[in-house]
Amino acid sequence: MKTVSVKDAVALIPDGASLMIGGFMAVGTPERVIDEIVRQGKRNLTVIANDTAMPGRGIGKLVSAGLVGRTIASHIGLNPETQKQMIDGRMQVDLVPQGTLIERIRAGGAGLGGILTPTGVGTVVEQGKQRIEVGGKIYLLETPLQADFALIHAFLADYAGNLSYALTGRNFNPVMALAGKTTIVSVEHIVPIGLIAPDHVVTPAPLVDYLVTNG
Q1: CATH number of 2-112+144-212
Q2: I want to staple 147 with a disulfide (CB 3.0 to 4.6 A). Which of 6, 9, 20, 198 is the partner?
Q3: Ranges of each domain in the chain
Q4: Regions of the chain short of the pLDDT cut 70
C-alpha cells in the first residue's frame, strides 16, 4: 500500500478506464477523488456503481462533465442528466437489478465464473443470457464484474491501510474493493495502527493499493 496525493492517485487512471465507485446516492462515495477526475478531465470512462447519484453530487459530477461513456448501474432515476445522455446516445447505460449487480461484483472479486439468479427469467432481461436449470427451476447465468480501478471511501484507515466504514457509508465499498484490479481509497481519518480494533476492520490492508492522503 502506498500513500499518495489525490492528484497523483487520479493521474494513475487513463482515459477509457473502467471504474467501480462505491456509494448509494453519493453516500459513501469518494468525493475528493471524483472532483479530481473532473479537474483532470479523464474521458470515456466506464462507471460501475449502484447509481449515478444526482447532478452536483458524487458520480453525478462525472456525468455532468461528460466524462462517462458507459454506466452499469441498478438505477438512474434521480439523475435527469444521465437519462438525457442515454436518450441522446451519448452514454450507454446497462441497467442491472440491484441484487444481481452486487452479486456480479462479488463474483468478480471472489474469482467466480458468475452467479445463477431467477431474476429476469421470462422477461427481456434474459435476452442473450444462458438459461440453466437446477432442481427443476430455471436460472439465468450472470457474468462477474471487475474493473480497472475501485474507488472507495471509508471512515477510518490506519497507517497499514486497514479500513473501517461508518454506518450506511459502507454499502458497496467493501465488495468493490475486492473486484478492482487497483484499489484507490479516500478516507475521513487516518489513524495509527492499533486504533482500529481487529474485529472492526472490514477491508484488510492487502486489498488497498493506494491510500489518498488528507493533506
Answers
A1: 3.40.1080.10
A2: 20
A3: 2-112+144-212
A4: 215
